[in-house]
Amino acid sequence: MLATVIYGERDVRLEEVPDPVLSTGGDAIVRVVAACVCGSDLWPYRGVAPTNEPHRIGHEFVGIVEQIGAEVSTIKVGDFVIAPFYDCDNTCVNCRNGVSTSCLNGVWWGSDDRMGGFADGAQGERVRVPHADGSLVATPEQPDDALVPSLLTLADVMGTGHHAAVSASVTQGSTVVVVGDGAVGLCAVLASKRLGASRIIAMSRHADRQAVAREFGATDIVDLRGDEGVARVQELLDGIGADCVLECVGTKESMEQAIASARPGGMVGYVGVPTGGPIEIRPLFGRNVGLNGGVASVRGYVDELLPEVLSGALNPGRVFDLELPLAEVAEAYAAMDERRAIKVLLRP
Amino acid sequence: MLATVIYGERDVRLEEVPDPVLSTGGDAIVRVVAACVCGSDLWPYRGVAPTNEPHRIGHEFVGIVEQIGAEVSTIKVGDFVIAPFYDCDNTCVNCRNGVSTSCLNGVWWGSDDRMGGFADGAQGERVRVPHADGSLVATPEQPDDALVPSLLTLADVMGTGHHAAVSASVTQGSTVVVVGDGAVGLCAVLASKRLGASRIIAMSRHADRQAVAREFGATDIVDLRGDEGVARVQELLDGIGADCVLECVGTKESMEQAIASARPGGMVGYVGVPTGGPIEIRPLFGRNVGLNGGVASVRGYVDELLPEVLSGALNPGRVFDLELPLAEVAEAYAAMDERRAIKVLLRP
């Protein structure tokens, strides 16, 4: 089959790779209907994270189940399924605690499953899922094709934006600042709106992203960053700051901006993969600003968000502004790298 | 009157200072019945925090109201009152948000009140309280002298231990680790017990403190620290870690130990004044460990904790293991510095 392999900086290739095969009994093979490129895929693409040897890439997909192992009980051949951006058993103590990204038996896509099998990367034609019952969520029926983009966001960006909002304790009437206008930041705006935030300030300097942020519920746009951005946010919020700040970038600068935008007693929910250095505790301590979040346990959120996506009430798929065939995966990366697209959907 | 002045490293003196006088209408003058020495007073005493010029010191006291300003409405002359370790108006937006340590009009004891008056340090005979209605809580009647130590803990250490527990979301059935066996750490054990924790592991290497921790509800004592301490905690908690970790020290090492003791998705509630360098985000991010806390807003906790202290259900005063006359304040500092006492109560 064809799948995407990253070789190094700005070098991703669609290549012939071995077809996946069932091996452990609890696994399934899924034909990918749609995959996409994540902001975090750009770290190795840009060389910020080194690629020591070529490896499979991609961690977001939806698809149709083609084969299941003998022990699979909740997933059936033919099901349309959403996979989270990681494999998990959904039964271990960490999964039960709601932190399935720390699953004791979990596997990252594109790596060995420590049971003798391989979990394929998502930017390919098929993926072997080690823990099918734990990881996959089937839709009640085959969804309309128009719903595919929104369903695909449940694999990562919508769940991750929701995690930022939940981690920051966004609730009815909250004032919210969202730092970051990538797909996750935009989904964080949508998640905040859904949870009842009364004021949502989106930090964005790009007209196309500002437009989506407005559609998703942003009440204010601030097109400044750093100290200037903080000053403008404080001006909008009576000099006190926001109840909740959603950090969706991951740099040291964005984290410091997020912390300074929170009010005393406020909470920063952060989901941006940290790429900066360590942070000072004093600015948190002195003002009782909390820091909560991490690798989003999106598996647990699919059940909560799926009905609203299926009903059309929630349309996070709007973050995809470019769709390409899988054969053009290299162009998909380039378009995101050069900010010509917010997020690119790939169809095998 | 007599009050304590710190001159520099290991140099505190009881001196004649001007009597406090009413000046703003909303103020009160309180005769101190009991004060004490805080772990944080040891930072300047030990020279860790420099003392550039002599200044008044002490921030924990209970006492009897002697005079009130014309605008004071809830506090009366003759009331026995508990003061938090800071002055606050209890009406500004930050106070209403439960973060009275960030009061927009707040004053630290031992400093000018920015209204032309002075807020005395607590280790003295009398204290002028700038915002009497906001800061002071009167007991319903004159308390028995035996209750004075426990009432005094509501000024800081019991409220601060409670803040650590609340910030870490301790609730019925939580597993808790408390890092730090000073008065605040011990009160954090008591607060966790009160909030329903099922397992409380106290990190302590001192027999006297271990005994108090046991009395306060610790189910396990770990007399190791650093990586060894973490390994022992993980062994006690099935290799997963604690739901809640209460950091009551403030060094970089204690914070790292606290973070490593939390389970994935767990929360570190920290109240130790940060004296270490910056901390890495990755160990928090990868395991979804949150960080919450700061300068404890104890004013808001007095109302909740006071009835249990008055009824005798809660006995945090047990942390005082030495009582001295105010005249021996220098010896009080020395006893705490040399760990001859957990916490010293001073009687003017």
Describe what you observe in this structure:
The structure is a homodimer of 348-residue chains. Chain A is of the alpha/beta class and 348 residues long. Helices cover 28% and strands 25% of the residues of chain A. Chain A has two domains: 2-156 and 297-347, Medium-chain alcohol dehydrogenases, catalytic domain (Quinone Oxidoreductase, Chain A, domain 1, Alpha-Beta Complex), CATH 3.90.180.10; 158-293, 3-Layer(aba) Sandwich (Rossmann fold), CATH 3.40.50.720. Chain A has helices spanning 42-45, 93-96, 132-135, 148-153, 157-167, 183-194, 207-216, 226-236, 252-261, 282-285, 298-311, 329-337, and strands at 2-8, 11-16, 28-36, 55-56, 61-68, 80-83, 111-112, 118-119, 126-129, 137-138, 175-179, 199-203, 220-222, 242-247, 262-270, 290-293, 322-325, 344-347. In chain A, strands 3, 5, 6, 9, 10, 17 and 18 form a seven-stranded mixed β-sheet that branches. In chain A, strand 14 (242-247), helix 9 and strand 15 (262-270) form a beta-alpha-beta unit. In chain A, helix 8 (226-236) runs parallel beside helix 9 (252-261). Chain A is globular and about 60 Å long. Chain A binds chain B through residues 93-94, 97-99, 101-102, 167, 238, 240, 255, 263-265, 267, 270, 273-274, 276-282, 284-295, 297, and chain B through 93-94, 97-99, 101-102, 167, 238, 240, 255, 263-265, 267, 270, 273-274, 276-282, 284-295, 297.
